[in-house]
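Course exercise 7: structure representation. Students receive a sequence record and must write out the corresponding structure in token form. The form below is the worked example handed out in class, using Succinate dehydrogenase / fumarate reductase cytochrome b subunit (226 residues). Read each field label carefully; the graders check that inputs and outputs are placed in the correct fields and that the protein name is recorded exactly as given.

STUDENT ID: A-19
EXERCISE PROTEIN: Succinate dehydrogenase / fumarate reductase cytochrome b subunit
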Amino acid sequence: MSWFTKTFSSTIGRKIVMSITGLFLCSFLVVHLIGNLQLLASDGGDAFNVYSAFMGTNKVIRFMELILVLGFVFHIYDAIVLTRRNKSARPIDYAEQRPQENSTWSSRNMGLLGTVILVFLIIHLYNFFVPARFGGLDTVSIDNEVYDNLYAEVIYAFSQWWYVLIYVLSMIALAYHLIHGFQSAFQTLGLDHKKYTPFIQKFGYAFSILVCLGFAAIPLYVFFFF
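STUDENT ANSWER:
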């Protein structure tokens, strides 16, 4: 086994990979939110359908999709491995242990939050990504060009209360996941300094709340006002 494999299969190595992939996925969330905001344009979905077509056909974007998938895979896999290692290292909790006094709720439940997000991701991909990439959508003409009408598919999904509920609850789980994960990533990468850490904590908190609030607001707005 090479030094590279040994390093990144160790506990600290896996934490570094989780941190890097986590921050990369944060950048994806920003781009994805900007794209989703096209749903609110008062043009009958033209902007969103054009945006979706661009994301599905641009070669650079398609290549970045592969990087994104790898990011998700490494992030999830390392999370599972680290969780198992932590449990095996301490199979029986101490009787007098009071974790609530030494850690936040989100840090103690990252596995649960991650599971909720993973289940939502599978549902989300099945409803939108699969039809958009592999067909099955109706088409619409925009400026004499034919586009898949993903907008209609999204609006239909957001008109169903159960899907909106799942979406909003998942965004709450994601917010808690990010609140802990954002700060933890910088700490793992050694970017922990008494001068800058308070700013990183505040920025991470604001980022987590605002991004997830933005995602949650879209299906709620569609459900109540469309």
